[in-house]
Every structure is written in C-alpha cells, then in structure tokens.
Amino acid sequence: MTRAHITLDPAFRVASVDRRMFGSFVEHLGRCVYGGIYDPGHAHANDQGFRTDVLDLVRELGVSVVRYPGGNFVSGYRWEDGIGPREERPARLDPAWKTVETNAFGVDEFMSWVAESGTEPMMAVNLGSRGLQEACDIVEYCNHPGGTFWSDLRRKNGSAEPYDIRLWCLGNEMDGSWQVGHKTATEYGRLAAETAKAMRLIDPRIELVACGSSNSRMPTFAEWEATVLDHCYEFVDYISMHVYYEESADLRSFLASAVDMDAYIDSVVSTCDYVAAKRRLPKGMRISFDEWNVWYQSHHRQQQESMEWTEAPGLLQDRYTVADAVVVGDMLLSLLRHADRVGVACQAQLVNVIAPIIAERDGAAWVQTIFHPFRQAAAYAKGTVLRLAVDSPRYETDVYGDVEAVSAVATYDEESGDVAVFLVNRDPDVAVSLDVDLRSLGAARLVEHQALSHDDPHTRSHAETVDALRPRQADSTSVDADLVLHAELAPASWNVVRLSA
Ligand code: AHR
Questions:
Q1: Which of 122, 172, 346 to mutate to test the pocket of ligand 1 (most atoms within 8 A of CB)?
Q2: CA Rg value for the chain
C-alpha cells in the first residue's frame, strides 16, 4: 500500500460544471440507430419504433447532448433522403461503413427521439461530399419557422414548430484520409469559414464547431488546428477534439491514458490561444470534445476487410472490461479538469457501437462497465469544478514513463452543499491509502464512497455479469473530527466519494 494526500479548497475554482460535458453520440453506424435506438419490430418498441428499454437506460445514464448523424457517415450523407414518407425514401450506399442505408430513420425521427430522451441535439452537416448550400438547407429545414421551401416541408412532415437546434458541427474529421471528401487544412478552413457565415445568416443563434484533428497522432496535428482557425476563428465557437484509447501495450500504460488526454487538451488550448494572440482576437476558443472513449480499433480493422454490403451490420460491438471503465472514468476526470475550456463532450457512442448500452436483437437491453463512471459523473458533478492539490505516489509505464497513480477532481455545489470527489487509482498492482484535507469546507459529512474494481481488471461485460460489475459501497471510508477523509483506493479502481458540506 502507498500513501496519497489531497487538499480540497472551494477557492480552487476551475469553472462551473456544464451539463453539455455529459454528451453522447448516435451515428448511422452498425446497430446504433437501426436495432439500437430504433427497432420498430422489437417487443419494447413504442408506436414511433423507439426502444423504450433503451430510452430508460439513456435517461438513467444522464446524457445531455447527443451528436448525430455522424461521424464518418455524415461525409457522404444526403439528409433530404431521410425526410418525408418512408416508402418514398431511397436506399443508398454508405461508403464510410460499407453499409446499405435505408433512410427509414432521419432528421425528424431523430428530433422525436431527442424529445423522448430529454436530450439536446447536436447536428453535423456534410462538408465531405457536399458543401455550403446543403448545410444552409438543413438549418432552414430545422430552425426556420415557416413560409419557405424547406421550413414548409418540415411543417408538412409533421413539425409545425421549428426544432431550434443550437449546436452544429461543420463536418467530421476532415483531416483524415479515410474521410469521404478529405481536405487539406487550408481547403477545410476556408470552407468552414464560409459555411459558418452562411449558416449564421439563416439562424444567428446557432453555435458552430470546426473540425480539429482526428487525434494527436495525426501527422498534421497542431498545424491543422492553427491553419483551420486562422481561417475561421471569428466565425466558430468551438474546435473539435477526438480520441480513442485501447489496451495495445501494457495494462499499466493503458490505465494512464488520461495522462495523454490531459496533454492533448493542453496542446489544443495552446494552439487556439496562439491563433488568438497572433490575430489579436479577444475571444477564448472553446473545445467540443465530441468523440472520446475506449475503442478496440484493431478488432474493427480485421472485421471490415471481410465485409459485404448489408443493412445495419454488427460493427464495433466492443465488450468492455473493468479496466476499460477505469480508463473511461479517468477520461471524464480529464474533461472536468479542463472545464474552463471544454464546453461540450460526447462519449462515442451511445448504443451497441462502442457503447455503454447494449440492445440485444430480439432481446433485452443491458449496461456495460463503462456505463457506471459516466452515470455517476453526470449525476454527481454539480456546481463548480475544483482543482485539487494532489500529492500522489507514482508508478512506471512503458508508454508514458513515470506517472501519478492517483487522478482526482472534485465538484462543489454551494447551494446544496454537495461535494463529490472523483478518484482513480491507475496503478493496477498497488492499493493507495488516501487522506483528503477538507478543513476549508468548514464542516463535512460522508454520504457514501462507491468504487468499481475487480481482482481481475480484464473481467468483461456480458448480459450475465451486469450485477457483478457495478460499483459497490466502500465501507471503511470515514471523515474524522479534524475534517480529514480517510479512504482506501483499490488497484485499478474508479471511486466517487460524496460528502455534504
Ligand atoms: O465513432 C466511430 C468513428 O470514429 C466515427 O465515425 C469517426 O468520426 C471516428 O473516426
């Protein structure tokens, strides 16, 4: 056992907790839409074809924003194919995922699903195979009240009121050679600037996200952000970030993935600030971290090689372990630590495809290990994010060298007095004995300490293991008379300590 010490002080403010930090992502990919959120033939489908058991779990997860319809899919998508009478909608090839798209589910169905799930839509436009005009058309369809071609078509299709969608992504991963309509930074920067200006002329209240790099290993990383923002800084509100981790080297390195994520966010913030400084622009650019998760991409590459064109193939159906959940929890901590710059974040994805929720074909819906840290962070991170002074033991990793074992962040809701301390012990071999100095709170009562860990962190989610792989109460945790919290953090564990101040 090693020892760690943390000081918590409500004066160490990072920023307010923005609910948009707990977003998710629904792409026309695999069985996320068809057979996931939408499955008219299923026993639990409502009269709109939405799976009600999935809807219940989405609400329990506490998802705020939902990004749609892609992802790589959007770069070849004609959104008008998905509106109007179903029998007239064309089937098309989706080149991104080698899939036949029936278009039975489109913008109007998505907006009905958003209303049912109590989430906020985040719509992506196609800047791969299409451009400025089609982007303006969909803004007019969704947000213009009526009296024009597209807005009247929406009314005819059943929605008299405009959808008033605020968040819009200007394409997806346009730096990637795999993207339909992949562009250079200059080509994309100019297109993003002009499209943003035109979309805002249709609806000045929208918030716009320009594409950043697909990940920090891209050869063009940082130069891409600098060039794109040089062209469009004043016309957009966010630059996007995406990252996926998988256990490819040693477990010790995998568990330290958030070390890399922290550095990645810091680099993008610096690049944004460089462009702002160079161009004498006062606005601080915000980050939309609109794809993040653990994803075993190596499995997908093997699968895609042997695929035929089919409808809703079972793609990217990763089954997550306890270690994956600890990494997902730590990624959430990285986002919260950067709450002063990260304004939106979307875990990719929501159902069946690299997802916390699994919807079985003709069967039940159930949750994977990664559901729990997300649900707890979304439920308990309230008020203000606090930066903690952390004195942690360190451990050795092959990829990142010597790293801190304890990752931590806290939130404090002044109104209710609720405090949540989120903690990860990344070290897979050694437990940590932790003290947290709470004296600055004046008074504090322990509400509960919930922890997720396992003797074998590679234990994987199945429908049968759902109950065994939930967080449990940690009974030995206490707050003493001097307002010091004492807790033990198991090796490779995710922890939430809730207090009342
Ligand atoms: O989330 C899966 C895919 O990952 C998305 O379609 C794409 O944007 C990213 O490469």
A1: 172
A2: 23
